[in-house]
Amino acid sequence: MENYYLYINGEWTGKDLETFEVTNPATSEKIAAVPNGGYAEARKAADAACEAFKSWSDCSAYERAELISKWHKLIDENKEDLARTMTLEQGKPLKEALGEISYANGFVSWYAEEAKRVYGETIPAAVRYKRLFVQKQPVGVIAAITPWNFPAAMITRKVAPALAAGCTVVLKPAEQTPLTAIKLAKLAEKAGLPRGVLNIVTGRAQEIGDAWLEDSRIRKLTFTGSTEVGKLLMKGSAETVKKVSLELGGHAPVIVMEDADLDKAVDGVIASKFRNAGQTCVCSNRIYVHEKIAAEFTARLVDKVKQLQVGNGLEEDTDIGPLIDEAAISKVARHIEDAVEKGAKIETGGEVLEGLYYSPTVITGVNDDMICMNEETFGPLTPVATFKTEEEAIARANDSIYGLAAYVFTENITRGIRITEALEYGIIGLNDGMPSTPQVPFGGFKQSGLGREGGHYGIEEFLEVKYISLGL
Ligand SMILES: NC(=O)C1=CN([C@@H]2O[C@H](COP(=O)(O)OP(=O)(O)OC[C@H]3O[C@@H](n4cnc5c(N)ncnc54)[C@H](OP(=O)(O)O)[C@@H]3O)[C@@H](O)[C@H]2O)C=CC1
Ligand SMILES: O=C(O)CCCC(=O)O
After folding, report:
1. Ligand 1 atom nearest 210 alpha carbon
2. Given this model, what pLDDT does residue 3 score?
3. Where along the chain is the active site annotated (predicted)?
4. Which of 141, 352, 395, 463 is the most interior residue, by most CB within 10 Å?
5. 383 C-alpha vs ligand 1 centroid, how far in Å?
6. Can you say whether the dihedral through the CA atoms of 90, 94, 96, 99 is positive or negative?
7. Could you read off the pLDDT of 160-213 as tens digits, one per residue?
8. Distance CA 254, CA 309 (A)
């Protein structure tokens, strides 16, 4: 078993701390023990990041870009090992894990370049004897708290722009998936990132979070995870008025119009629904199909869902791995039981399999009172409801406290644009089940979060705007 430690001020520490176990959700086997850090370690990490900020923020953008590019190269050279580690601790199929490493590394290369494009501005003054300038500066020390469902991409999507902007970082990965995070930090060290610039603390979430929330030297919190914890962290950030970026829950609707290309729509739904066994905040959670094509759409969908292979992610033909834990299984089962009690029909799936596996499921006869039509399932359940008019579909799709991703399938581009503009969502896949990519803004409306990650928008979250008035 490999050793995994905390990474604070360029040193691998925490060897004397108690540990917590990391298990493989596919087999329930213990795969590693990781130090159970807490308040003291979080403080040390913050001290290191504060000290390192002085020199890191003073480096030229080109110096930072070069180190970030070296990190990118090392991640690429180690992608098989990183992907295998991810599959072992998180469960997703190896082919998906490899895809995530490439996606994650896409943020690293994008922000290595973007570091060089942090432009300022000059603004015409109203009087002759003044010159007005705007420049951008790094926010300061950043605290990042990340989830288990994307153990690499949720880290690089935060850390790469923060480093590029000149910020230093303290990071707490999720309890279930710290190994990928630690391996990424080892590669950052190998790339030559100066000590204290990136610090990783594993352990007791609330203590670590509290230490960073109360620390006025930490100027920004960036978080991906549940809406519940996001709200707690937002409240906790108020005391020291930190900047906050939150990427929280979703409840993505899919609208399939009567003029959709049905094969495209079915493939899009499968891609968005079953990615990571449905454990993605942009996974489609509820499908609205025009009543005229509902029977044909459902038949084609069910046929394809039946072909999905459930199994250990390390096996080559696996499409759907295990869910992360028992609570995730119970949530899916509860959503299906509730739907069936309220009149839904299981077209395929609906079974808890041995271990942490749940069979990919399609249900029909769905109505808006069912839990699955109101809450994020975060599992492989596909509820299919029908609608009569475009207005009805839009209203039902928007009837949610969430606003992260939505999907629309239609071959009529005018209608597609009209629906897209009416949807209260931050990300829309129009005839596309996989809109995520490093160069675009990712984030939600309403209670799905604040701020944007990715693209040129992502680096702005780590920059302060400074206005300088020069009197001549
Ligand atoms: N938007 C998204 O991408 C995600 C959404 N979710 C949703 O949330 C549900 C629950 O998943 P869960 O893993 O519990 O998500 P959480 O929001 O609890 O966890 C996300 C991260 O926050 C940390 N955390 C939890 N509580 C605190 C706290 N009080 N202070 C500081 N950090 C904290 C966790 O640490 P630790 O792991 O140590 O508890 C983890 O690193 C899922 O079923 C899903 O619906 C989950 C993951 C990602
Ligand atoms: O928050 C998530 O669930 C991970 C984001 C997935 C993506 O970037 O598409």
Report:
1. 30
2. 84
3. 247, 281
4. 141
5. 25
6. positive
7. 999 999 999 999 999 999 999 999 999 999 999 999 999 999 999 999 999 999
8. 23
